[in-house]
Design a protein that fits this description.
By secondary structure, the protein is an alpha/beta fold. It has twelve helices and twelve strands. The chain has two domains: about 130 residues, 3-Layer(aba) Sandwich (Rossmann fold), CATH 3.40.50.720; about 180 residues, NAD(P)-binding Rossmann-like Domain (Rossmann fold, 3-Layer(aba) Sandwich), CATH 3.40.50. Helix 1 packs parallel to helix 12 and helix 5 crosses helix 7.
Length: about 325
């Protein structure tokens, strides 16, 4: 059987596919496949392993209804038409859990960099603007004993909360549909309404899935309800925040700063004003970019492919309802 892969992935995953006797084709060009190219390459494949921003939409799924499995080299699946996948009986796999700590570490890194204006001060060195000491200029803010609010306290959010609690003794509040008993027991976390999360958090860190409910949830109205010294951190999905409204909130000092590993749109334009603001830190979606994490993602993505081609239940299925 044949597998088409839209990126060069770590050897750890490729080795599993080879050991399973699968024929592998990898897209090696450093550009996104067009929609039609992706469909064409999948015509002779039995499985697709996709990384990046390829759209697995209704058009693709209808044109490639012969596929037995689509394995995402990612946790998020907002680029997939799950309803159409279910109609076509195509199993969709993803790679949750294995990247939780690495992604949380990026959120923790961004929070600290924003609080101390680290990116801005680094640019001062590059610009040769580091030769006169001003005791009151370009000061950051302390994180010790502040309140961290988390939207979406799952595995990634828990790791972010644990690091923040341990390093800065931060109080943890969160907004979820359900209680996270582990966080409440181990970290003293408190479940609150979304309104209370906005009003009480010194830092808000977003770890929610992108859904119709969360898309654009951080906008002009919600930013206006946050503290003027608040830091907004998003390592989940860019469309969860309205970037125009975020920029306005920062320029008007409605909130204090922002740390982003995801942007809206993505990739961000190199001339975006956010990149030059002293109280903003932006990274190019590197939440999972450690060697061990990417190896683990490749292994899990490969296991999803192998299971799907055997007609077995995927280890991590986005749409387990197709087995019912």
């Amino acid at each position: 059987m044949k597998v088409f892969i839209t990126r060069i992935i770590p050897e750890a995953g490729l080795q599993l596919l080879k050991e399973a006797g699968l024929e592998i084709t990898q897209w090696e060009e450093k550009r996104e496949l067009t929609d039609s190219e992706l469909i064409d390459h999948c015509q002779n494949a039995d499985a697709l392993l996709t990384a990046g921003r390829s759209k697995i939409d209704g058009n693709f799924l209808k044109a490639c209804s012969h596929l037995k499995v689509v394995s995402l080299f990612a946790t998020g699946f907002d680029n997939v038409d799950i309803d159409e996948a279910n109609r076509q009986k195509i199993a969709i796999g993803h790679t949750p859990d294995v990247l939780s700590k690495a992604t949380a570490d990026i959120a923790f890194l961004l929070m600290q960099n924003v609080a101390r204006k680290a990116f801005f001060h680094h640019r001062r060195i590059i610009n040769d603007d580091w030769n006169f000491f001003e005791p009151t200029a370009n000061l950051g803010i302390d994180l010790q004993n502040k309140t961290l609010g988390i939207l979406g306290l799952g595995k990634i959010g828990f790791e972010m909360a644990k690091s923040s609690k341990g390093a800065f003794e931060m109080d943890i509040i969160y907004h979820n549909r359900s209680h996270n008993e582990e966080a409440e027991t181990k970290l003293g976390a408190k479940k609150v309404s979304f309104e209370e999360l906005l009003q009480k958090s010194d830092v808000i860190s977003v770890h929610a899935n992108l859904t119709d409910e969360t898309k654009g949830i951080f906008n002009k109205e919600t930013f206006s309800k946050m503290k003027p010294n608040a830091i907004f951190v998003n390592t989940a999905r860019g469309p969860i925040h309205n970037e125009k409204d975020l920029l306005e909130a920062l320029e008007n000092k409605t909130i204090w700063g922002a740390g982003l590993d995801v942007t809206n749109p993505e990739p961000m334009d190199k001339d975006n004003i956010l990149l030059s603001m002293p109280n903003v830190a932006v990274l190019p979606h590197i939440g999972s970019s450690t060697e061990s994490t990417r190896n683990d993602m490749a292994i899990l993505a490969a296991k999803n492919v192998i299971a799907g081609l055997k007609g077995e239940r995927l280890p991590k299925a986005v749409n387990p309802e197709i087995y019912e």
